[in-house]
């Protein structure tokens, strides 16, 4: 009876996970989805404690004391972890959300790897299949943990450079082969009757396996540059879900199976969609540098960058009929989203049609720009995806590009030799006029010149995005 009740509660929790994930697909219902998924996680966690807590009634002596201690430690860990998560989530700035997501991905993967380590050391697997699942979960969880920690360190600015050098792919291959050999050895250590021999060699192999798996995650993440981070974070999120799901099969825990599978499949699909948005394969993102081979420039740039100032920009925008704003990572770094929305409101008061255009890989995590604009109070109906708004640029008076670079580079359409050729871009070059807010004349992450910046109808407004937009606002108020 108790087992049936627990399985029913797990099933209800799984339904809440799925409904929550579905609701998160839209900014309008995302908050509701988070609450549903949170409630599902809460009841799944509570019911996990139920069987052992009830067993305490029938146990006596040392066994009861040991079980009570274990339950108490687990409850203390849950309370401390929940408190840390609550405080950090309340305090973290919206611009730091990518770091937080990467960190939580890593913790999820690490938790799955720890469960796998216990399962291997205690011999939970009763046959070769479940042993293989435990080993796979350990490998994926450890890779997701160390890779996500590196992603967090890069996004936080603790690691400044990408680890790119000749032969890095060979190192990755060697580390992967070693981890694979250790995984095969561990997978074979189950007898036909389901028993295990926990020898010193077996224990050392488990330790070596986790060390190599952690190194593999580091060697994968270290060469990744900032522009690829949204895809990589999404991939590690998918790996974390997959690792949890595999360990759920080992422990026969329905909640872990369903939640892990849902997260893993959703993360995998998101990773695929984002890679497609960059016209690249996931393997190329992980193992091939995004940029110009051998440092040779791609495409000949014609024209010159032409500077403008805040006053001219304000005048042009004040008398425009239609303005499309394209936010990028520069807006996030400058934390300019509130000023951008203030500018948009002023323009709307002058009956200017203002829209926001979001590229799928803008920023440093999936939906980064959507989160920032939502925090600033931008109505959802003003925010458009690439495929929905690109046709409108040809009838737009001004495209205002704020801290975006490669995602508006028209060379992606015209030059087959360019490393970004084929990548869908926002068609800012088709607007009648374009203003680019940018700190300097540097190239984008791909290392190539942006031909949009040299176009005859493009003007460069140099400076920090927050300061530059604020100056435009002040000029606009004086008109």
Overall structural class, as computed from helix and strand content, comes to alpha/beta
The rounded Rg comes to 26 Å
Taking all residues together, what is the mean pLDDT? 85
Sketch the topology as an H/E string, one letter per element: HHHHHHHHHHHEHHEHEHEHEEH
State the helical fraction.
55-70%
Q: What does the main sheet amount to?
A: 6 strands, parallel
What's the helix count?
Answer: 17
Question: Which strand order does the major sheet show?
Answer: 3-2-1-4-5-6
Strand content: 5-15%
Q: Distance between the terminal alpha carbons, to the nearest Å?
A: 75 Å
The coarse overall form would be elongated
Quantity of strands, as a count: 6
Blueprint of the fold:
Elements: H1 2-23, H2 30-55, H3 61-91, H4 97-122, H5 128-155, H6 168-187, H7 200-221, H8 229-251, H9 254-277, H10 282-287, H11 310-318, E1 322-327, H12 329-334, H13 337-349, E2 353-358, H14 368-376, E3 383-385, H15 386-389, E4 398-402, H16 411-414, E5 433-438, E6 458-462, H17 465-478
Parallel strand pairs: 1-2, 1-4, 2-3, 4-5, 5-6
Main traits of this protein?
479 residues; alpha/beta; six-stranded parallel β-sheet; 6 strands; 6% strand
How would you describe this protein?
The protein is of the alpha/beta class. The chain has 17 helices and 6 strands. It has a 6-stranded parallel β-sheet. β2, α14 and β3 (383-385) form a beta-alpha-beta unit. Residues 290-296 have low confidence and may be disordered.
